[in-house]
Structures are given as C-alpha cells and as structure tokens.
Amino acid sequence: MYAHQIMARKVLSTTPDSTILDAAKMMLRHHASGLPVVDRNGALVGIVTEGDFLHRSEIGTERKRNWLMTFILGPGKWAEDYVIEHGRKVSEIMTRAPVTVAEDASLTTVVELMEKNNVKRLPVIRDGKLVGIITRSNLLRTVASLARDVPAPTENDDQIRQRILDEIERNVWCPLGLSVIVRDGIVHLSGVITESTFRKAAIVAAENVPGVREVHDHLCWGDSFSGFYLKSPDDQELEKQVH
C-alpha cells in the first residue's frame, strides 16, 4: 500500500501569521495534536505540534539556562529559545522544514520515517504543495504490517476509494481528517465527526458505492469546545473483546 491510499486529503492547517492562540484553539477544538503550516500559495513551510507549546512563558516552563551550555553553544541559542517561549505567531514557534513524504511512498517507508524522526504525523507533498497527511495510529501500524503479507489493493479498490472520497467530501458533514481504506471491497472509514448524524451519513455514502461489500466505522466523535472525544461504537466493542 502507498501513502495516497490511506492519507487524509482534507487537512486542517494554519498559516505562519496566525497567532499561537488561534492555533492552540484550533488544535483543541478539532482534537488535533499538530497542524501543518502553509503559505498563501499552499506550500508547506512548517508544522506546529503540542510539543511546541511545552516551554512557554505563560505557564512558567521556560528552559533552564545552563551557563556551561551557553559557553559551548553561544548566546544565540538563548535568543532562539526566547522567541519560542515568548513568540506570538505560529512562524515563531513552528518546526521549519518538517519531515514529509510523497504520495507514492510505501507504508513501510512512512512508518520508518515516523519512527526514525519520532514524529506522529507526516504531511504528504506533491510539487511542494500539501495534499494530505498521515497520522500515526494503531490502524496505520496494522495496515503497514499486513502490507508485507497480503496483496496490495486492486485497481478496483482504488476506484471504490476515490468514489467514496468524492461522495463524502462534497458534503458539509464530511468528517475532519477523513481517511478511507479499501481492501477487496471492504471499507474502513476514519476521521472526526462533530455530530452523531454525520456518522450514519458517511456510512450510507460508502455503502452506496458500487463494489462495496462491507463498511467498518472508525469515526470518532469530538466535542468542538472541550476537545473531548469518543471512539466509534465498533472500536469500543473491539477494545472490550481484546481486554
């Protein structure tokens, strides 16, 4: 399997000039642990994650100053840390030149990049533009391991996936971070919904696509204000069986 076959195409993102307050609110509202940063032309220029909010002056968690390290690294490092700890714009705290992946990268490559760089998400790039994102999850690891032992999705599976994406993404109730995986006509839907009615609408949309044999629901419900979320009933039931 390849990156484009599992990536979320509608990506929640922010801009370099956005305030860190707006970025933090967006992450909490949509239960996102990170946001790609794109410029006016849609080019990826950075990424901001929960880790970028760890050392902040507002909560008194600035980095401790070590005079020995200052002697070794020079005062420039203190200046960089100060900007990260007190900056008000996303461009001042984001990670520049983030690790990315191409659409045709294999899932083995995706997992290796995540583990090597200790990142939870990989922006998917085409000609320098952001076209999707892949986040680390148990589903990703499972799919990546299965890819070594079972045939890749057929051309028909890819066509089914594209039809499902086209049908769901044109609606206002489209789940955030929608991901669709199709294998032998069996569909797995992932993403975040903010209303319970969105779940059924997405499932019905997938079921109505010719060639779909079965639909598995991995859509989690998220509260836009508190950031609280619940896994899908199917996933909750599966966890009970495992434990």
List keywords for this structure.
single chain, 10 strands, 38% helix
Q: What can you see in these coordinates?
A:
The protein is elongated, with a radius of gyration of 20 Å. Helix 6 links the parallel strand 4 (101-102) and strand 5 (121-126). The model has no long low-confidence stretch (mean pLDDT 83). It is α+β, with helices and mostly antiparallel strands and 243 residues long. It has a four-stranded mixed β-sheet. A three-stranded antiparallel β-sheet has the order 1-2-3. Strands 4-5-6 form a three-stranded mixed β-sheet. It is built from ten helices and ten strands. The protein starts with a helix and ends with a helix.
Secondary structure blueprint with pairings:
Layout: H1 3-6, H2 20-29, E1 34-38, E2 44-49, H3 67-73, H4 76-86, H5 90-93, E3 95-96, E4 101-102, H6 107-117, E5 121-126, E6 129-135, H7 138-146, H8 155-169, E7 176-183, E8 186-193, H9 196-207, E9 214-222, E10 229-230, H10 233-242
Parallel strand pairs: 4-5, 8-9
Antiparallel strand pairs: 1-2, 2-3, 5-6, 7-8, 9-10
The H/E string reads: HHEEHHHEEHEEHHEEHEEH
Number of helices: 10
Ends: how far apart? 29 Å
Radius of gyration: 20 Å
Mean pLDDT, to the nearest integer, reads 83
| Coarse shape | elongated
Reported for the largest beta sheet, the result is: 4 strands, mixed
Helix content: 25-40%
Please give a quick description of this structure:
38% of the residues lie in helices and 23% in strands.
